[in-house]
Amino acid sequence: MSTTTTARAVLGAETRLMLREPGALFWIIVFPPALLGILGLIPDFRTPSEDLGGLRTIDLYLPTALILTAIMASLMTMPAVISTYREKLVLRRYATTPARAGDLLFAQGVLHAGAVLIGSGLALLVGYVAYDARIAALGSAALVYVLAVAANLACGALIAGLAPSAKTASVIGTAVFFPSMFTAGVWYPISALPGWAESIVGLTPNGAAVLGLEQAVAGDWPDPVHLIVLVAWTMLAGAVAARYFRWE
Questions:
Q1: What would the mean pLDDT of 19-35 be, rounded to a whole number?
Q2: Which ranges of 72-186 would DSSP assign to H, the alpha helix?
């Protein structure tokens, strides 16, 4: 069986398994747009602010909602799936086939990226229809978004590949989840932080992603530093995940 055929077979099998238990997709597809919709109900969030360059708080929460879909997939869903496979010895059976670790990680990455795309599309729809929140520079936003999803899924693959059990993956994912929500601006807009704090947060994948998307919302091209940070996280986490992936 060729490498391409094997990868397709693994993707097909993982797709069928995911569709049998769609409940986990709620947090990726429904939660971020719902959060955006709820936050938009706050009157002050819909008022332009001079401190935000004339933007509204809800405008800055649109990038946060987009990145939140990737966070939910990479930290709360994908690691749980793969680590459960490991715990139930499903990965051991995979290891006896022509499938490689990269095939399984690729399949899970594709499926969760698809769910992230749907969730992000709904968030954009809620922002646009309900609150007239728009992204002025769509091209630069798309670039940052793709890199952000890749970086998050690479980090999720790292957790999934190394965690020995579903419980451990859940603990690690939860421990990383709340700081990730902060760096994504869920608790407080990143651009409203003091300069030194913004610079530190910008070195994290979600901080760099949100800052880059905020620049796109304002119609600007993202700072190259944000793009470099996202690429670096993707390459490093992805390489370690593939190299040290544990079948058992």
A1: 87
A2: 78-87, 90-95, 101-131, 138-162, 166-183
